[in-house]
Design brief:
With about 170 residues, this protein is an all-alpha fold. The protein is about 75% helix and about 0% strand. One of its GO terms (biological process) is DNA-templated transcription initiation.
């Protein structure tokens, strides 16, 4: 087990290394830059307050992602609203490669997905997490994550195919 000081240093390093991903994850839920920053700040506070409860320091990234997801969901429950995505604001905060949607239909289809499906898709394809890591972050069974990912992709495929027929 790590000492408190080493644990805090590891947590700071984890947050620093993944700050863009953490922000994008929060933003994918709330669709508002200020709210996403508030969620990140609150998540950092929660992480430092409960760092002693971390059983496996090697799983710090997925542990912290779970805090961000739960904080985001708590925020949505309290606010009972979802903001439209403001791509320019997101890009202004990102220092890494911005996520640019090549297809406006894909963006719209992602926004229309239920949160449980959108979460899996965002974590898998935008945050590049493995199925096992997603299951850990969302505190779900691996098979549940696989099923949700499969269903989300099927829904997206149907929506995108239907939309393309309408436009042609």
């Amino acid at each position: 087990m790590l000492s408190n000081k080493k644990l805090e240093n590891s947590l700071v390093q984890c947050i620093t290394d993944h700050k863009e991903s953490i922000y994008r994850l929060a933003y994918s839920y709330v669709r508002n830059s200020e709210d996403a920053l508030d969620i990140v700040q609150e998540s950092i506070h929660k992480a430092f307050s409960s760092a002693a409860s971390l059983k496996n320091p090697d799983a710090m990234k997925s542990w912290f992602y779970r805090i961000v997801v739960n904080t985001s969901l708590d925020f949505l429950r309290k606010q009972k609203r979802i903001q439209l995505m403001d791509e320019e604001t997101l890009e202004s905060y990102s220092q890494g490669m911005p996520d640019v949607y090549q297809n406006i239909d894909l963006e719209k289809a992602l926004e229309e997905l239920p949160v449980k499906y959108r979460s899996v898709v965002v974590l898998r394809y935008f945050e590049d997490l493995k199925i096992e890591e997603i299951a850990e972050v969302l505190d779900e069974n691996i098979n549940t994550v696989k099923t949700r990912l499969y269903q989300a992709l099927r829904v997206l495929r149907v929506k995108l195919n239907d939309d393309s027929y309408v436009e042609v």
